Amino acid sequence: MLLATATACANDVPEANWSRGLLPDHVTEQGDVVQSLWNGAWIAALATGAVVIVLILWAAIFHRKRKAKAELPPQVRYNLPIEMLYTLIPLVMVSVFFFFTARDSDVLTRVDGNAPVKVKVEAFQWSWRFTTTVNGKTLQPVAGVPVSDYKQGPQLVLPTKSKIEFDLSTDDVIHSFWVPEFLFKRDVIPGLSEDNPGRKFEITTLDRPGVFAGRCAELCGVDHSRMLFSVKLVPQAEFDQYIATHQAGSAQ
């Protein structure tokens, strides 16, 4: 609640919903994977918390020292079945968390390399440069400067219902490419070679047109808070028109 109140004055904070675990409504297929993992983790955490609270209350009520009796209540130290239970249950819980996290991480980091739309993202202090390639045709780069409103920053136009590959690079410090509605962010680390898998990720956009705020999520210097941009999702027909007027070398 404190976090929600503190960020309420920002114009680029997406609307969250309790039914989604306070995550924004996602605009990618990969967002379904993240949402499912997030909800499952919260359900498991809340169930574990409820069991722990019940055990604490039970111990406090039924195993406290009585004023009328001098002896201690029955102790359970060195109880092998209980100690095995204390060990096995956390092991099972951690194993389950690890399985689902590893499975979903594999989905989120998979790059097939056959996306029709590829975006080269160059981060620098303190803005972004986007160079989009569509079926081998490179569009004019879109670059920005530090701004106080994401609507004034560089805008990356992408089609809905399409697979998109991102290639992240920087020449100065570590940045982080984050669009909250993607439910995914990736650090932009200097010095990674072009064939390093840590530079790339893929998304498949849903049929949800709109303009979505993006930002750097890694403290990168004095104007870090102004390193803002936007992503505009448009239907394919509108994206085709955008391509026609923004091919490299064409006049706008």
Could you explain the architecture of this structure?
Strands 1, 2, 3, 4, 6 and 9 form a six-stranded mixed β-sheet that branches. A five-stranded mixed β-sheet has the order 5-11-10-7-8. Helix 2 (29-62) packs antiparallel against helix 3. The longest helix has 34 residues, at 29-62. With 252 residues, it is an alpha+beta fold. The chain has helices at residues 2-6, 29-62, 80-109, 236-246; strands at residues 117-124, 127-134, 137-138, 142-143, 155-159, 163-170, 175-179, 184-188, 200-204, 210-216, 228-234. It has four helices and eleven strands, in the order H-H-H-E-E-E-E-E-E-E-E-E-E-E-H.
Number of strands: 11
Helix content: 25-40%
Distance between the termini: 46 Å
Query: Which outline best applies?
Result: elongated
Task: Write down the overall mean pLDDT.
Answer: 88
Class computed from helices, strands and strand pairing: alpha+beta
Q: In percent terms, what proportion of residues is strand?
A: 15-25%
Low-confidence sequence ranges: 3-8
Short description:
Helix content is 32%, strand content 25%. The protein has 252 residues and is of the alpha+beta class.
Keyphrases for this structure?
single chain; 252 residues; alpha+beta; six-stranded mixed β-sheet; five-stranded mixed β-sheet; 4 helices; 11 strands; elongated
Write the layout of secondary structure elements.
Layout: H1 2-6, H2 29-62, H3 80-109, E1 117-124, E2 127-134, E3 137-138, E4 142-143, E5 155-159, E6 163-170, E7 175-179, E8 184-188, E9 200-204, E10 210-216, E11 228-234, H4 236-246
Parallel strand pairs: 1-6, 5-11
Antiparallel strand pairs: 1-2, 2-3, 2-4, 6-9, 7-8, 7-10, 10-11
Helix pairs in contact: 2-3
